[in-house]
Amino acid sequence: MANEDAAGAIRVGIGGWTYAPWRGLFYPEKLPARRELEHASRRLTAIEINGTFYRSQGPKSFAKWRDETPDGFVFAVKGHRAVVNAKKLGEAGGAVEWFFNTGISELGEKLGPVLWQLAPFKKFDAEDIGAFLALLPQELGGRPLRHAIEVRSKSFLVPEFVDIASKHGVAIVFAESETHPSIADVTADFVYLRLQRSASDIETGYADADLERWAARAREWAAGGAPADLPTIGKGKPEKTKRDVFVFFIASAKERNPAAAEALIECLR
């Protein structure tokens, strides 16, 4: 269940739901593969769909995933590489339009943020990044859309990037990563985290103390604040208003990520 009251909702999950090493750890050994999403969506509160980065899925797939998951469950959808790998992001309007016509609207109320992950070679260009964010649609099928951008070049560590994202209401992804920039500035009405330091020798991926810290930070964001112990680069402070928070355990010791997500959900109860 998402944690929601005077604060925003906090949803916690993983990237994808098909991964062989999860069999026996997260999925029962005899669970049919066709029921993996059904199982995962009843133990977690969100899933980031990564397959949409590599190929279009089609309306039937999105409708099937919608129907297999419970009320209140949310999918984040990763934008296609045809968009984010364009030489000029600001000229990717045709690819953006194509992507949103692949059937994503079939997710209905279960459609959460759309994640735009830039490659490490994509450097900060204020004009181009501003033009790209201006291309992103504000609604789909009559429902408002939320966008998050994950950057992987240190050239984005400038206040101007925060200003541009804030202007367009696009969330800058906070990546807890050994190799990619970590930017905790709040630039939208939601916060998007990708936690990438799970450890294979810890049953829950993260130590209890670390999970408690992430739970406290998530609560602070949801209540409209901002954790003081994470790096920011912007000059101003965000408006204090409740925000939804999305937390995904990604990569690193991937076999442990479902346990990490479940442990964080428990911390938030």
Cα shape? globular
Average pLDDT across residues?
96
CATH-defined fold name: TIM Barrel
Gyration radius from CA atoms, angstroms: 18 Å
According to CATH, the homologous superfamily is Protein of unknown function UPF0759
Helix content: 25-40%
* Amino-to-carboxy terminus distance: 9 Å
Your description of this structure?
- There is one protein chain.
- With 269 residues, the protein is of the alpha/beta class.
- It is built from eight helices and eleven strands.
- Strands 8-7-4-3-2-1-11-10-9 form a nine-stranded parallel sheet. It has a two-stranded antiparallel sheet with strand order 5-6.
- Helix 5 runs parallel beside helix 6.
Question: Secondary structure elements and their pairing?
Answer:
Blueprint: E1 10-15, H1 36-40, E2 46-49, H2 59-68, E3 74-78, H3 81-84, H4 93-100, E4 111-117, H5 126-135, E5 139-140, E6 143-144, E7 147-150, H6 159-168, E8 171-172, E9 174-176, E10 190-195, H7 208-222, E11 244-249, H8 257-268
Parallel strand pairs: 1-2, 1-11, 2-3, 3-4, 4-7, 7-8, 9-10, 10-11
Antiparallel strand pairs: 5-6
Quick description:
This protein has 269 residues and is α/β, with parallel strands linked by helices. Helices cover 28% and strands 17% of the residues.
Give keywords:
17% strand; 269 residues; TIM Barrel; alpha/beta; 11 strands; two-stranded antiparallel sheet; 9-stranded parallel sheet
